[in-house]
Design goal:
This protein is of the alpha/beta class. The protein has two domains: 1-42; 62-278, Rossmann fold, CATH 3.40.50. The protein is built from seven helices and eight strands; from the N terminus they run αβαββαααβββαβαβ. The strands form two sheets. Strands 3-2-1-4-7-8 form a six-stranded mixed β-sheet, sandwiched between helices. A hairpin with an 8-residue loop joins β2 and β3 (119-125). The protein is elongated, with a radius of gyration of 29 Å.
Length: 279
């Protein structure tokens, strides 16, 4: 009886081991498929290799930077601008939200004389700061490739802006309000289709001395409501960051009343004014 039982047990053990071996290919295959699926899941959305912008721009954040060099920037103002651009994706205790995040689009415009539309000198999406890479970035792109993308973005922004600033001449007019109106209409979605989950930002570097047929701050501030009535602009759903370039030459015009005038303009347009910094 013991021999027969031992023989049956050996046969049962062989069958059990055979069954386990039969399942090994399925287990390995399942793990392989799970690995592939996981890798595909963390892949970033496809982007344009030249602009770094996502192919699907439906929910893309946008930051518009408007620079007014109707009067020459001082050395310190130019240095401040360069430093801000270098830290465009930096956050801190005071600046809890960056001006631009990975995948968001940056467009840079310069104010041109009255009768001309503002000139766009840069349009590209943020490829991601190599100092703040996500786990997905770590797994899907090497450090060298990521660094090259970030350097290209940073260099292209700075070169484009420096070239424009260096070639700019003082202008007889400064249609700041008209430039804001044009950029809003050209680059941002209509108000009724804006996505509340997407960031839309407007960053303006200017002395804010409007000088055109619509208003001349050298003659007086005028009625801002009349300007808005003639030139309606809707900035609701947009974050506003303003850098006012202070000029000794224009100190008698850059008063508290002048700042209040613009604050009333932006309040009327529905913009969310997050910063007003004098430089």
């Amino acid at each position: 009886m013991s021999k027969r039982r031992s023989s049956v047990q050996r046969v049962s053990n062989r069958k059990s081991k055979g069954s386990i071996r039969a399942f090994i290919p399925f287990v390995v295959g399942g793990l392989l498929l799970a690995t592939i699926a996981g890798y595909m899941a963390i892949q970033p959305p496809p982007t344009d290799p030249k602009t770094f912008c996502p192919q699907n721009t439906e929910n893309m954040g946008i930051t518009a930077l408007l620079i007014d060099v109707s009067d020459k920037l001082t050395n310190s103002q130019a240095a401040k601008l360069q430093n801000e651009l270098k830290n465009i994706s930096t956050v801190s205790e005071k600046r809890t939200s960056p001006f631009l995040k990975k995948g968001e689009k940056l467009v840079v415009y310069f104010v041109e004389p009255q009768g001309q539309v503002p000139s766009m000198i840069f349009s590209m999406c943020h490829p991601g700061d190599i100092a703040n890479k996500t786990i997905s970035d770590e797994l899907t792109q090497g450090a060298i490739f990521a660094r090259k993308k970030w350097e290209k973005f940073s260099d292209d922004v700075m070169v484009s802006i420096d070239k424009k600033i260096n070639s700019s001449k003082e202008m007889a007019t400064s249609p700041i309000f008209e430039a804001i109106q044009f950029i809003r209409a050209k680059n941002f979605p209509p108000p009724d289709v804006m996505n509340s989950d997407v960031k839309y930002r407007f960053v303006i570097w200017s002395d804010f001395l409007q000088n055109s047929d619509e208003g001349n701050h050298f003659r007086g501030l005028g009625d801002f409501q009349k300007i808005l009535k003639r030139n309606p602009v809707e900035l609701s759903g947009m974050e506003l960051y303003l850098f006012q370039m202070i000029s000794k030459k224009y100190s008698k015009y850059q008063t508290n009343e002048h700042v209040a005038w613009w604050r009333r303009v932006f309040a009327k347009t529905g913009a969310e004014l997050n910063m007003w910094e004098k430089i």
